[in-house]
Amino acid sequence: MTEPTSTPVDLDSLMGWTPLIDDAEATIRSTVRRFVDDRCLPHITQDFEIGRFRCELIPELAQLGLLGAPLEGYGCAGTTAVGYGLACMELERCDSGLRSFVSVQTSLAMYAIWRFGSEAQKQRWLPPMARGHVVGCFGLTEPDHGSNPAGMASRARRVGDDWVLDGSKLWITNAQIADVAIVWARDATASGAILGFVVEKGMPGFSTSDIPHKMSMRASVTGGLHLDGVRLPEASRLPLARGLSSPLACLENARFGVAFGVLGAARDCFERAQRYTLERKQFGVPIAKKQLIQAQLADIAADLVKGSVLALHYGRMKDQGRLSAVQVSLLKRECCRLALQAARTARGLLGANGVSLDYGVVRHMLNLESTYTYEGTDEIHTLALGRAVTGENAF
């Protein structure tokens, strides 16, 4: 039997990441970590408690090159997928709401314009969005159509040379602070094609609403979009968006950042529980000396290593253009599962203190209940995997 080590091992050492991350990616990670430590963590408990997202952080996120980070051109940083993932991990080490703002701005709103927009749309919107001067949101989910976006009720009618949009979207991150919304609607003609539009704040018939009484993602702006006869010129339509595959491609892109992000939340839960159990004494010794406590910490650490290695491997595949949709589903499903379990276990390790916001873990636990559901529920990703391994569609 080996002697116990005097210093707890660092998770990075267990993961063996150091030689696998290049200098630019390591710089991104350390820079975002300092930003989170200095500018975000000191306020997050109060922000979560009162339900506030600090909009004053947006210019600072832009200065770090995080808005549109993995996109090429138009003022975007053009980082690797792994570099962007590491940034998401550090942001969510603070709070899921902080990472969600960057994810929606980058992987949904900006990505939709970057991939499916006209050159004029890209030139108009992407540079100011990268600078944080324009905030975007992504309107796909509806009150009655979440996991089945193909059933969307929002409609786009052609009236002369314009389009008229009617419908509602719900659970939209950034809704109330967005200057521009990417809205998906079904063509009201017999074709029924799914179309994408860039809708600007302040247009007649376009409004937003709050979602009260949230117990998760409280330090994030979440609301509804309402379109009542919103008239748009043809120039507002995303010309390269063709069918439901277009918004689903945006979601697939966003799921990658979510998977990296939740690992950051899980890691923060682990490190808080690790410190607490080393300091908390019962029966005359630190509770970390007890076998049951060590077993739980070991399980969290092992899950974090497995999830992080998978995320890094799939990140390299994404950079090579080889990552499939089902692999993204697997990554998002597994990382969200292990992160939520890590938070729940860590909450228990902190005992009664675990339910206090002062200790941070319960905040992560509540947020991770949302990440388990959004960008595709756990059940939907399970069915995607099931279809892949059987060839049978159970949707």
Write up this protein.
The protein contains 11 helices and 9 strands. With 395 residues, the chain is of the alpha+beta class. It folds into 3 domains: 120 residues, Acyl-CoA dehydrogenase/oxidase, N-terminal domain (Butyryl-Coa Dehydrogenase, subunit A, domain 1); 101 residues, Beta Barrel (Butyryl-CoA Dehydrogenase, subunit A, domain 2); 146 residues, Butyryl-CoA Dehydrogenase, subunit A, domain 3. Strands 1, 2, 3, 4, 5, 6 and 7 form a 7-stranded mixed β-sheet that branches. A hairpin with a 2-residue loop joins strand 8 and strand 9. The longest helix is centred in the middle third of the chain and has 35 residues. The radius of gyration is 22 Å and the shape is globular. The model has no long low-confidence stretch (mean pLDDT 96).
Number of separate structural domains: 3
The Cα radius of gyration reads 22 Å
CATH class of the largest domain: Mainly Alpha
CATH-defined fold name of the largest domain: Butyryl-CoA Dehydrogenase, subunit A, domain 3
Beta percentage is 5-15%
CATH architecture label of the largest domain: Up-down Bundle
- Overall geometry comes to globular
What integer is the average pLDDT?
Answer: 96
The CATH homologous superfamily of the largest domain is called Butyryl-CoA Dehydrogenase, subunit A, domain 3
